[in-house]
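A quick aside before the break. I want you to see a complete sequence-to-structure record at least once, exactly as it would be stored in a machine-readable document. Don't worry about memorizing anything.
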Amino acid sequence: MILHFDFSIPDLERLDRSLLRDGLVELLRVHRCGYHLLIFNRNVGGWIKGNLDLPASAVAMVDRISSNFTQTADLIRRATDYIRIALFEQSTIQKNGRAVEMSLDQVVAPHVLERSLLLIEDIESDGKLYAFLLQNLKDKLNVPPLKWELMHGGGDRIRAVAKEKLSDRRIIAAIVDSDLRGPSAQRCSKEEGLCRVASENSWPLLFSFVPPCREAENIIPWSILALTPVAVDRRSDLDVCLVVAEAESRVNMPEHESVWLYLDLKEGHRHEKLSKLQAGWLEERLLLANIAAGDFAFVGFGEKIMSQVFASNAILAELRRAIRSDDWMRVFGEFFIRLAWIFAGGRVQYT
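That is the input. The structure line, written in tokens, reads:
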């Protein structure tokens, strides 16, 4: 994350020198490792060099950080979430708008500023996809280098796993599937559960994310899934989706309302599982393609979607092109921008 060391000179003068030195040593360590990106201005950098006993390598890094302030200051403005380290009257960690505000004593607590955790319901399949997407979207999103540590969320146990990791006081970005069968303003229950964990444990560095679709497989465009062996074997299912997608395009349907985003791509469509509202929404979309709800047969592609995508370099190359398109970014861009800022860091520095 972006670490804004936001102290005035009078603030620095008030701080305990031992705590200040220990805090800066830790902040410089994680900055050097590229886990996070430390930012402070030239005045602060000059005061640090003149008043704290730091090793030569740390002093050189302080110089570089403060000299780069004119370039890095804008990152604070652009970050959807960042950490603001400042002077408070008591030990503090709290959310304030885009900033998570921390007092210096919180910084020196063990584990807090290690690599941010990317907590995924299924690390084997979904984890590969999210890692691929973040790696291949970084320049498109215009964010600093990204660093994260993948962690398995145990499927439906992700709330319990997140709670366990809070004992380590780590920065956590937890992604959960919405499991929605149509667009909805309703918050999914798994996201609500994670928000309760963060609130009950007074830990604003647990961030929950829900992609704007049913589950991770729906992030993959139908044109990419069409290249997999399982889709070739079930061409009739894909053809139905194509007919619906073409009908949506003819009426300029917003991309985020596409039927493709909410189909159960693994297990297929079960009309009886839909609520009355969901059924009505789907029937309207199908009518655009002159398909009656009772005639909509979609068996699904099974559990091998992810493994077959990642088994082919050619498919991955096509996926990279597809996710950088304007159409795809209009649906998923905001989600990935927010996610990426949790992992914003820098390049590893060896001196």
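Two observations worth writing down. DSSP finds 16 helices and nine strands in the chain. The chain has a mean pLDDT of 93. We'll return to this after the break.
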